[in-house]
Amino acid sequence: MPRPSNILVFGAFGAAVVLGASACPQSPSSRPGDREMRVELDAYSGQPNPSWDLTPQQAEDLVQRLQALPEERGGGSVRDGLGYRGFIVTGGADLSGFDEMVVSNGVVLGRRAGKTQKLADSGRELEKWLLHTGKGRVANDLYDDIAKDSDPQD
Amino acid sequence: MLRVTADIFSGRPNPTWDIQDEAEARAVLKDIASNRRIATEVGGAAESSLGLGFRGLIVEPMADDLGKDFGLEGGYRVSPSQVGGDSKGSELIEKLIDLAGKSPSVEGLEDAEDQGASLRELLRDQLDKGSRTTVPDQRGDQGNRGTASHHEGTEEAAPEITCYIEKSPYNPGFWNNDSTTLRNNNCYNYASNKKTNTFAQPGRGAGSMYTALTCPEVTRASLADGLHHRYNCFPDSQKPRYLVALVIAPGPSFKDFHWYRLNSENFWSHKPGGTPARNVDNSNKVITNPETCNRGPYTNFCGYFYTCKSQKIK
Q: What pTM, to 2 d.p., does this model score?
């Protein structure tokens, strides 16, 4: 049975994601209001991807959602190739944890210095939530297309 | 410690540098031990046919226990000709060249101000020149793309013409191993084989960027950067002249452009945005024809072009 992931802490100046580590003391600059997390909708090849910053409340919400995710123990993998792939979450230049997280196809992949850790995004709930944070920042027709892709039941 | 020798000169000593970091040294040996096809033993039978020019990088453990941990003894040569299109081999060569760039001291390059950086430039130059081949690209020749195109105006009445182009071995490690390179270079950078770290846009280099994501408009912008339509030949002075293909995702909701480049292995490779370079399509099949491969939403095939040395890309 999957177990909850260990502590994920978004640290100084952004998403310092520490996966698989024990509790980590928060520095004064890692208060929820200071988190500046950027979400990138990873879809394009030639053009730059659409991206936006999360509000402090959304960043706090994201941390909580990540903390609840179990480790991915199956063979799930992120999407690659041409077309919509998923989301990339970064936290600015001053990351003391993972450099980025990729949320795609039911998998959350944390990357740092060539090392990765996989979490399971059951039902692609986190992916759908990230898309929702882009409402109004992503062109409406593209938003609707991706919403259908990530939740075909809708 | 590992000693690396760039086997490159004939009349003077080859440059050598040391990998002092134990973890990095072990990682190199592990790569060789896990992928024995990419390296040959120094002094072995394969050494007799090395010839002139860049003959590879020789990796040699400098302590008796280091190589033994990986079942390796003596020196090992990793050469571009041996590696060919093997991505593991290409990645190892790129890694060793990067480590040379970080080396504070290089024997055999005493004149250079920044020895590590100079050596890195020298090796990259040799690697590029040494592995690139010039081939004819003849109108009506099916070999380069698998099927005839209806996008070039190459119907039977078109006059015969032969241009010369360059093909390079598939080398995804150059684009994929460094996260800055990976994220900041797109399909246009990759097809042009020009790293700018700017997520290059057709026409931006010439100050005339595309204004719509359509075949005619992205074509116009690319020609403004200096590309030529296929069979509009470039002279030798414009080497390297790669054969590339442009496609468009026409929308209505998903609009974008994408490029492919022909490699010397006669497959096509590409780099989807900030994701790794690859030589397979959306069905995970090696791309032998960019017109018919699975391109996901990029359903419009615009045509083939040549890149060139003087291409403005930004």
A: 0.70
Read off the tokens for B120: 């890195």
Strands A100-104 and A107-112: antiparallel
Using DSSP's 3-state secondary structure scheme, residue B60 falls into strand
Q: What is the pLDDT of residue B84?
A: 59
- Supply B252's token pair: 């209505």
Domain extent listing, chain A: 7-20+32-149
β-bridge mates for residue B262, sequence order: B268
> CB-CB: which of B258, B280, B297 is closest to A46?
B258
Picking from A68, A81, A79, the residue whose alpha carbon sits closest to that of residue A120 is A68
- Give the residue from B197, B211, B214, B255 with the most A CB atoms within 10 Å of its CB, the best one to mutate: B255
Q: Which residue of B has its CA nearest to A144?
A: B253
pLDDT digits (tens, 9 = 90+) for B133-164: 899 999 875 545 443 344 554 445 678 899 99
Q: Is the peptide bond between A32 and the residue preceding it cis, with omega within 30 degrees of 0?
A: no
Sequence-ordered alpha helix ranges (H) in B148-186: 172-176, 179-184
Asked whether A14 and A92 are in contact (CB, 8 A), the reply is yes
Whole-angstrom distance, CA of residue B308 vs CA of residue B299: 26
B258, B273 Cβ separation under 8 angstroms: no
Q: What angle do CA A125, A131, A133 make, to 5 degrees?
A: 105
**Residue B125 to residue A70: CA distance in whole angstroms:** 47
Tell me the domain boundaries of chain B: 2-131, 133-306
CA distance A5 to A69: 6
For chain A, residues with pLDDT lower than 70 are 1-35, 92-98, 114, 152-154
Which residue in A has a C-alpha nearest to residue B272's C-alpha?
Answer: A45
What angle, rounded to 10 degrees, do the helices at B22-34 and B87-102 form? 160
